[in-house]
Every structure is written in C-alpha cells, then in structure tokens.
Amino acid sequence: MKGIVFTEFLELVEDKFGLEMVDKIISSSTLESEGIYTAVGTYSFSEMLQLLEHLSKNTGISIDNLLLVYAEHFFSVIEKSYPDLLATYKDPIEMISSIENHIHVEVRKIYPDAELPTFEVIEKTNDTLTMIYKSSRAMHHFGLGLMNKTFEHFNSTATIDLEKIKEDGTEVRFVIHKN
C-alpha cells in the first residue's frame, strides 16, 4: 500500500483526535515500519489494518465509519493535488465510471507499483451506475466515501447502495442513483 495513504491517514488522526492518539495507535501496533512513513514508500496493508483497529478501539468508531471519514479527507487531497484530473469531468457518474480506465491509469503513472482495487462497470445510464468492486483489501467504505465526495464536488447528490457479494468485503456491488 502506498505511503501517501498512511501519511494522510495519520494527518487526519492528528487533526481529528490529536497527536497523542497518533502516538497511541502507532505504539499499540506491531509495525515493520515502526510507524515511519513517506508518501512514496510502500508498506504492508496489515499496518493500515492495525492502525484502523486501534483507532476504532480507542474512539468507539467502527472501522467502516473511520474509512468513510478518511475517504472524505483523502478526496480533499486529490482536489488540491490533482485539480486538472477532476476538471476533465463534468458529471459525477462519468467520473466514477471512469475509475478503472482513466483514474487508475493516472494513479499508476505516479505510483507504478500501486495495488489498486478494480471497479467493473455493469450498467451505466445518465443517472445510474452499477459497479463491482474487487480488492484483496476490504476497504469498500473508503471507496464509498470517495464516491460520496465526488457527488459533493459536482454539487450533486446520490443514493449509493452497497451490497457485499463476498462476506469479507473483498467483492462489493455499488448501485448509484443520482438524485
């Protein structure tokens, strides 16, 4: 998992819960990196899981809800760092449906060894989108949060239903209805 995911996560934890919480979740975890991350480094997903689990335990917030909040934070990083990428889209359905064929292609240019989930578009109209998310990492709520922020970015709203195809969350169906 790319280091930017870790550095931004710890920045969010510091902003929302304080530096003491950052120290607490790092020291409670068994991290090969010892909690020292660079944005361009690559780290084990198990480290992110440990950080999320300890943050959840210390805050009483579910991991899924933490991932939603983190996705909202991460979208603001995308807005600041890649405004030209976002400007190529005029509609949230168009942007979300292009994750696999455009956005992930651009991500791989920056991070060639990034392990990204796949998003298979099953059905698309002007106001609806059905996609299948597949990943060895059950971070579908991170994807859901990014989708929510995409609609907000375009001053639009949607109902996004999430259905686990595999109980462990490694395969999920998203059904999006633009309001």
Automatic annotation (TrEMBL):
<dbReference type="Pfam" id="PF07700">
    <property type="entry name" value="HNOB"/>
</dbReference>
<protein>
    <recommendedName>
        <fullName>Heme NO-binding domain-containing protein</fullName>
    </recommendedName>
</protein>
<dbReference type="GO" id="GO:0020037">
    <property type="term" value="F:heme binding"/>
</dbReference>
<dbReference type="InterPro" id="IPR024096">
    <property type="entry name" value="NO_sig/Golgi_transp_ligand-bd"/>
</dbReference>
<feature type="domain" description="Heme NO-binding">
    <location>
        <begin position="2"/>
        <end position="160"/>
    </location>
</feature>
<dbReference type="InterPro" id="IPR011644">
    <property type="entry name" value="Heme_NO-bd"/>
</dbReference>
<dbReference type="InterPro" id="IPR038158">
    <property type="entry name" value="H-NOX_domain_sf"/>
</dbReference>
